[in-house]
Amino acid sequence: xxxxxxxxxxxxxxxxxxxxxxxxxxxxxxxxxxxxxxxxxxxxxxxxxxxxxxxxxxxxxxxxxxxxxxxxxxxxxxxxxxxxxxxxxxxxxxxxxxxxxxxxxxxxxxxxxxxxxxxxxxxxxxxxxxxxxxxxxxxxxxxxxxxxxxxxxxxxxxxxxxxxxxxxxxxxxxxxxxxxxxxxxxxxxxxxxxxxxxxxxxxxxxxxxxxxxxxxxxxxxxxxxxxxxxxxxxxxxxxxxxxxxxxxxxxxxxxxxxxxxxxxxxxxxxxxxxxxxxxxxxxxxxxxxxxxxxxxxxxxxxxxxxxxxxxxxxxxxxxxxxxxxxxxxxxxxxxxxxxxxxxxxxxxxxxxxxxxxxxxxxxxxxxxxxxxxxxxxxxxxxxxxxxxxxxxxxxxxxxxxxxxxxxxxxxxxxxxxxxxxxxxxxxxxxxxxxxxxxxxxxxxxxxxxxxxxxxxxxxxxxxxxxxxxxxxxxxxxxxxxxxxxxxxxxxxxxxx
Length: 496
Ligand code: ADP
Known about the structure:
Blueprint: E1 6-9, H1 13-25, E2 29-34, E3 49-52, H2 65-74, E4 79-81, H3 91-99, E5 103-104, H4 109-115, H5 118-127, E6 135-136, H6 143-153, E7 157-161, E8 171-173, H7 179-194, E9 199-203, E10 209-217, E11 223-235, E12 238-244, H8 251-267, E13 272-280, E14 286-292, H9 299-306, H10 310-318, E15 335-342, E16 344-345, E17 351-352, E18 355-356, E19 368-372, E20 379-380, E21 387-395, H11 398-411, H12 421-429, H13 431-434, H14 442-445, H15 457-477
Parallel strand pairs: 1-2, 1-4, 2-3, 4-5
Antiparallel strand pairs: 6-9, 7-8, 7-9, 10-11, 10-13, 11-12, 12-15, 13-14, 15-21, 16-17, 18-20, 19-21
Helix pairs in contact: 11-12
């Protein structure tokens, strides 16, 4: 068995910090990266060794494979944790590390390659007898043939880029006459985003739920699942509220989905952490959507309900350890919710926003976890993803967890910039959400209910209180500069 002494975290922000915390606990040194622009962000000084990548586009910094491999060699790191996004699912990176004799804390390259392509992954699943959304995922990309397949499937259909991710290259087509135009625009978008315009066509499931299963396998042929996450609350095909367990599942359905996910891991001889995503139809049928061969953004809710540190397990698996527990010992306890705090304006079509975070906030509750890449005084720019933090709470049941999350959001106002904080609160308070009726079109269906609202009494009180804080801080740090009115400084907070 290997024993890592030093690990490079090939990522930034909240996930780099989160991984570093586990490495520290395991007595492994962390090497952290940052760019010139990120000098003041918390991750720049969080590691045991910090490397300034200078300035330049991502291709010259975080995504520069050659440069990262050189850093590994120079600093004699044993392994790399790629986090999520960036190089986490890029097979060439995995190969380059292998050649340099550096371990990747991730899956085998073959699994990464086959699951990175929606078409290939569906072919593998079909052979293994895993339920797939009815559709066409063949090689023939002729427009007329795809249109014929769409008719066979029955409208509405969904055109999807095979190399896709983040909802790019995806088009819903309601009727045959719209097909060809939608196909062309999906292909164009896919070519721009992924350099590959292969598509697949599948039945568009109306009002489905998105439910995923966390899996983890070791190098000794043991395949585990860590139960499900409900991720139906999305905007623009991206998750914003996640919870575990899912309010939609019976125990029987839950077991069936988790068993299917394990079967997928076995089929692929998978190693490491992964997530099998399913679409759940109203009649209780579920279909394989895709498998993500990395740690997910929303992994903390699984950690909260199972009590396992998934990053720790990833490291142990990469060191070759045989995991010492049984499937029957991995239990779901209580209820966890995560919300993604974005620097964006939900009332203006989720437009990204920038500015200085005057005050992040501080929790006044038990059982709350804030995974954030920013601290008070930091600048949010357009250079990186607008997700600035994840707020995660745990409680004994769903109702308590929702209430706790609402309070937790009040404690972390992220004053100074516009965020989706109030919008998230409106979702949590919505009657339909409270009843556990979550589905992927929730946000669109209830757009009117989720629109701007007057501030609650508590929020008003907090605004006034926090304003005192900001004024004091500004006076201290910018001597002699007149402080503008209270509400001017609360742009992310009040209703414009
Ligand atoms: P991406 O890789 O771009 O994220 P996915 O295949 O994972 O694409 O799908 C993203 C989201 O799109 C899902 O969570 C779901 O909300 C929606 N979706 C995908 N396929 C279908 C489908 N066949 N019918 C209805 N909604 C779908």
